[in-house]
């Protein structure tokens, strides 16, 4: 009996020590030999990355991020804005936002809210479908380029 308890205890100990650890925190596959490891970031660089990511995340909750966070994207827009003399507010007044559209539909009751929600879901589904389609096309082009390099 004591021997069986010892064997069972050893198996439980090994399970917790090795198998459970691998289940809870799986180890990643080793890197291929041709991959060069990048240097680790310093504490200052980590702080800079975290600060930049937090600013971009906070700015993503508003509609227009602004030139202070994405200056490269706004260089092109300043050239286009010089041609287009229509104020920014007039463009927004022409087409209501999705949120405003849903708010108006919610005031009308369930019979007007259902088609508005269906429009939102359909536009998001089409956006996801288009993004997936473009990803697949790009992936196939990448595979073709790799295959052409291997043939050469």
UniProtKB/TrEMBL annotation:
Residue numbers spanned by region Disordered: 68-97
Domain of life of the organism encoding this protein: Eukaryota
Biased composition (Basic and acidic residues): 68-96
Protein name per its UniProtKB record: Embryo defective 2735
């Amino acid at each position: 009996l004591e021997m069986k308890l010892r064997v069972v205890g050893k198996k439980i100990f090994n399970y917790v020590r090795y198998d459970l650890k691998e289940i809870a925190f799986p180890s990643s596959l080793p890197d291929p030999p041709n991959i060069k490891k990048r240097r680790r970031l310093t504490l200052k660089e980590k702080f800079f990355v975290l600060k930049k990511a937090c600013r971009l995340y906070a700015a993503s909750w508003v509609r227009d991020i602004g030139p202070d966070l994405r200056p490269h994207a706004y260089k092109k827009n300043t050239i286009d804005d010089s041609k287009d003399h229509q104020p920014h507010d007039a463009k927004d007044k022409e087409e209501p936002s999705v949120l405003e559209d849903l708010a108006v539909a919610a005031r009308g009751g369930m019979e007007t809210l259902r088609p508005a929600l269906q429009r939102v879901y359909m536009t998001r589904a089409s956006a996801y479908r288009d993004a997936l389609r473009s990803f697949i096309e790009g992936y196939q082009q990448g595979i073709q380029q790799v295959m052409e390099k291997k043939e050469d």
